[in-house]
From TrEMBL:
This is Cytochrome C oxidase subunit II. GO terms for molecular function: copper ion binding; cytochrome-c oxidase activity. GO terms for cellular component: cell envelope; membrane. PANTHER family: CYTOCHROME C OXIDASE SUBUNIT II, NITROUS-OXIDE REDUCTASE. Keywords: Copper, Metal-binding. Residues 55-152 form the Cytochrome oxidase subunit II copper A binding domain. It comes from the Bacteria. Pfam families: COX2. Its main location: other. InterPro entries: Ba3_CcO_II_C (IPR034214), CcO_II-like_C (IPR002429), Copper_CuA (IPR001505), Cupredoxin (IPR008972), NosZ/Cyto_c_oxidase_sub2 (IPR051403).
């Protein structure tokens, strides 16, 4: 697991994203302690309702669950020109999350939450793909991210 964690962090730095596996970014997520979450109990966390939300302070957070062989939500809507902190975890096995056309590329490990903050500048639709072999449906594990003007 230490090796996997190292690879995840290394991949994240290489790709220019910054996961807060230890929660040092200050984003408190209910049910998540020090970047760890029980994959059997995602229903008791914000991952129970995947998608983007606006917090009381105006910031945006998005929760994404990877499971064989899909991402939830199937279409993640984010606002254009606003920083959004994306949290992703796995409900089962190790997956990857890569947003095609960006430098976002992180390993998704059951029991851990990878978080990163990014701003999508332009409206449009991007493909989100799993780039970590996860089983027979791996190659079909694709979802969409839509960047929209206005609240998601
Ligand atoms: Cu999920 Cu490959």
């Amino acid at each position: 697991m230490v090796v996997l964690l190292f690879v995840a962090v290394l991949a994240s730095f290489v790709s220019g994203t910054y996961p807060s596996l230890t929660g040092e970014s200050g984003h408190h997520v209910a049910g998540v302690r020090n970047g760890r979450v029980d994959p059997r109990l995602l229903g008791a966390t914000p991952f129970a309702t995947p998608g983007t939300r606006q917090n009381a302070d105006g910031t945006y957070e998005a929760f994404v669950v990877a499971r064989a062989f899909q991402f939830e939500p199937a279409v993640l809507k984010v606002p254009a020109g606003q920083p959004v902190t994306i949290h992703v975890t796995s409900a089962d096995v190790m997956h990857g999350l890569m947003i095609v056309g960006t430098n976002i590329n992180t390993t998704v490990i059951p029991g851990q939450v990878s978080s990163f903050t990014t701003t999508f500048r332009r409206e449009g639709t991007l493909d989100v793909i799993c780039n970590e072999y996860c089983g027979s449906g791996h190659h079909g594990m694709i979802s969409r991210l839509t960047v929209e003007v206005g609240p998601p």
